[in-house]
Amino acid sequence: MKRKKTSIGPLDPSGERAHGAPCINYIVHVMNMATMLLFLPLVHPPVAAAYLGGFDYNSTHFIRALNDGGFLNTLFWWVTFTGSLTFMVVITIALYLAGARKEALVFALVFIIANAVAFGLKYAIARPRPSDLGVTPEAQPAFPSGHTTNAFAFATTLSSYHRKFSVVMFSWALLVAFSRVYLGLHYVTDLIGGALVGITISIIVTRAAKRVDGEVTRIANTPPPPTTWQGVVKLPLVFITQLLRVACALIRRHE
């Protein structure tokens, strides 16, 4: 005799399981996060060191030695700006206004989460900036590189929706990462950490978004693009509302 399969979902306010919704075990997620925090003190001393072995020292100084202070130095200052928080906000707005609303909203979520993780790690690990590369160290801790996190988060997110741009996007992300050491602002291992954070967060969020792609698309296209100046004035509020709705859709996504 065949058993009838039943769908088990999260509890609703009355204490019953919502039919058809996947069971999300938040306790497991909290326990995993607690375990990571317990191991953080073991990770902190080696990662907070100035250099993580010979590879980190040699590669960092090799890249920094390529900078002769000429035209490329100026060029890479512009390249590194494209990985900044300011530029990421501008490019997100540009994508949204250009009609790529879904991609802009998904990346906005990736951007917020990735930066929360990156800045959390920065101040938890508190690795000092390099002080032997001929520039005044910045105040923020070094690991992971925030610019590299942003660049790889954006490249991964956009490539997941438009694979034809993958080579261009990841080439740009690598240049942003390279610029951070070229300008004497980071260690090479900071770049590796930033790339891992950006790629990981982007993969998690974009995969979740694609599971409810129809709903995310509907949210992104509601309301339609404004045709009057009053509509343009309301765009920031519309964007924030849509962003919150997309976040809620991912949290309660159906399998």
Describe the protein's architecture and organization.
- The chain is mainly α.
- It has a single domain, classed as Vanadium-containing Chloroperoxidase, domain 1 (Up-down Bundle), CATH 1.20.144.
- The protein has eleven helices and no strands.
- The chain has helices spanning 26-47, 53-65, 71-81, 85-97, 101-125, 146-161, 166-182, 188-211, 213-220, 229-233, 235-251.
- It is elongated.
- Mean pLDDT is 77; it is low at 1-26 and 37-48.
Mean pLDDT: 77
C-alpha termini separation: 27 Å
Q: Outline, from the CA principal axes? A: elongated
Please mark out the parts with pLDDT under 50 across 5 or more consecutive residues, or reply none.
1-26, 37-48
Key features of this structure:
11 helices; disordered N terminus; Vanadium-containing Chloroperoxidase, domain 1; mainly alpha; 255 residues
Kindly summarize this structure in a few lines.
With 255 residues, this protein is mainly alpha-helical.
Give a topology summary.
Blueprint: H1 26-47, H2 53-65, H3 71-81, H4 85-97, H5 101-125, H6 146-161, H7 166-182, H8 188-211, H9 213-220, H10 229-233, H11 235-251
Helix pairs in contact: 3-7, 4-5, 5-6, 5-8, 5-11, 6-7, 6-8, 9-11
